[in-house]
Amino acid sequence: MTGFELVVRSRRTVTPEGERAVAVAVRGEKIAGLHDYDALLDTAEDIDLRDLALLPGLVDTHVHVNEPGRTHWEGFDSATRAAAAGGVTTILDMPLNSLPPTVTVAAFEEKLRAAGGQCHVDVGFWGGAVPGNVKDLAPLRARGVHGFKCFMSPSGVEEFPPLAPAELRRALKEIAGFGGVMVVHAEDPALLGEPGGPTYREFLESRPGASERSAVRQVVELAGETGARVHILHVSSADCLDVLEAARADGVAVTAETCPHYLTLTAEQVPEGETAYKCCPPIRSEDNRDLLWDGLGRGVLSCVVSDHSPSTAELKVPDFAAAWGGIASLQLGLAAIWTEAVGRGYGLPDVVRWMSANPASIAEISGKGAIKPGNDADLVAFDPYVDNFVDASLLHHKNPVTPYHGRTLRGAVLTTWLRGRPVDGVPHGRFLLGEQ
After folding, report:
1. At a CB cut-off of 8 Å and minimum separation 6, what does 109 contact?
2. pLDDT value at position 435?
3. Each residue of 271-301: pLDDT tens digit?
4. Residues 6+ apart with CB under 8 A from 60
5. Would you list the DSSP string of 228-255?
6. What percent of the chain has pLDDT over 90?
7. Which residues of 45-66 are buried (b: 16+ CB within 10 A; e: fewer)?
8. Mean pLDDT over residues 115-126, rounded?
9. Which residues form a coiled coil (predicted)?
10. Residue 357 CB: number of other CB atoms within 10 A?
11. Which residues lie across from 98 on neighbouring strands?
């Protein structure tokens, strides 16, 4: 068989070797080959993007879908439509804030039933590590979760309590035994306080960078002791960077991520009462943001993922002490990061490394994250030049609440292909189950 079902050409195709003028040929849901841009190819459909960019589908390993149980916050249909519209072709769902949380095989089966037939992109799942469920970790791994999420401080929902240090050690030993990974919300509860009032300044002061640094130190020590692989979630404080860099130099199996809101927004920009900006850990200063970019550029931070954690507008009351903490940005991450990255001298290959290749590698998702033969034909046509005005009411997110509302970003997704087929409103995403 010589013909292809689809060929997509672009003079700015982002491959593992960098930007190239390439014709990407697709057969049987896979990338069958990379050819010269102007090669004559036998294909059912031939699309020429010319100077528009062709990227691999992004891989967002930090998404709170919230279904079942809190589907009025978000759900698999709305979340995966938003993902595709933002160039994301693979998401990993967090074990909270769904009800029940994904902390047993039975709860995981319930989530799979809820998600069935709704997914517009491919979906994998994290399991949860909570007090008392060490015995459930290996069965969850065997059923197909990609790893385990835990909190060191209160999660914000009663059904997903944090692990005390001794419990974290036991869970890490268990996970090390079967070669899994623990992804950690790292804030030291001993260094957290209650906000002294409703303002953003008071909220920020209640969650200092020292809390993140202390928690990351503890995780690194326990990872070194147990031999477990760990990944630090949503690093917001540059105070953590030297700890992470030293740990990796010492051979500790630790990686770390940050998020678009920490790289594009600053505490100085947060309007009082605009609790769409509230998240934990919090958005910090402009100087801190610059240091996070430096850490990302040097590889201390490996990837950029959304931590999409939406809620209803009613929970975002204009009081930073009382409002729900979570940023909704799944559809906007690529444009937000590109807007900031291009002004700092980075290119699309950097963005693809941070938002596609590295997340896929950390979560051990095969066949994703790069335009290369044999991988799934997850492709994104991206206009890197166009202005993109954000109207929250027009996003696919279930609730029109995002701190990017009213901002003009740079770049827009034109078409997203999942395994060679355009995402067109008919769900054809699959479950990505880990080692079984």
Report:
1. 143
2. 64
3. 999 999 999 999 999 999 999 999 999 999 9
4. 83, 88, 90, 91, 92, 305, 306, 308, 330, 333, 355, 359
5. -EEEE-----GGGHHHHHHHHHTT--EE
6. 99
7. eebebeebbbbbbbbbbbbbbb
8. 98
9. none
10. 21
11. none
Backbone angles phi, psi at 14, to 5 degrees: -90, 105
- The pLDDT of residue 118 is above 80: yes
- Count CA atoms closer than 13 A to 240's CA, side-chain side: 35
Residue 276 corresponds to which tokens in the numbers above?
A: 């769409």
- Give the whole-angstrom CA distance, residue 178 versus residue 296: 30
> 403 Cβ partners below 8 Å, 6+ apart?
261, 265, 274, 276, 277, 327, 329
Q: How far, in Å, CA of 275 to CA of 301, rounded?
A: 27
Paired tokens of 101: 């949380």
All domains of the chain in start order, with CATH = 6-51 (no CATH), 71-364+385-409 (3.20.20.140)
How far apart (Å, rounded) are the C-alpha atoms in residues 103 and 117?
23
3-state secondary structure at position 152: coil
The C-alpha atoms of residue 142 and residue 434 are separated, in whole angstroms, by 8
- Model confidence at 434, pLDDT cuts 50, 70, 90, reads confident
Q: What are phi and psi of 297, to 5 degrees?
A: -65, -30
Residue 90's φ and ψ, nearest 5 degrees, are -140, 130
Which residues are 90's β-sheet partners?
59, 122
**What is the separation, in whole angstroms, between the first and last Cα of the chain?**
33
Exposure letters 404-416 (e unless 16+ CB within 10 A, then b): bbebebbbbbebb
CA distance 113 to 109: 6
Secondary structure, 3-state, 65-98:
CCCCCCCCCCCHHHHHHHHHHCCEEEEEECCCCC
Distances (CA, A) of 99 to 73, 128, 250: 12, 12, 40
pLDDT range class, residue 102, cuts 50, 70, 90: very high
b/e map of 90-123 (b: 16 or more CB within 10 Å)? bbbbbbbbbebbbbbbebbebbbebbeebbbbbb
Helices (H), 208-365: 209-226, 241-249, 260-264, 286-297, 333-343, 348-352, 358-362
If you average pLDDT over every residue of the chain, what do you get? 97
Q: pLDDT tens across 370-426, in order?
A: 999 999 999 999 999 999 999 999 999 999 999 999 999 999 999 999 999 999 999
- Alpha-carbon gap, residue 306 to 371, rounded angstroms: 22
Q: Which structure tokens are listed for 354?
A: 């941070």
Pairing of β 46-48 and β 6-15: parallel
Tokens of 283: 């958005």
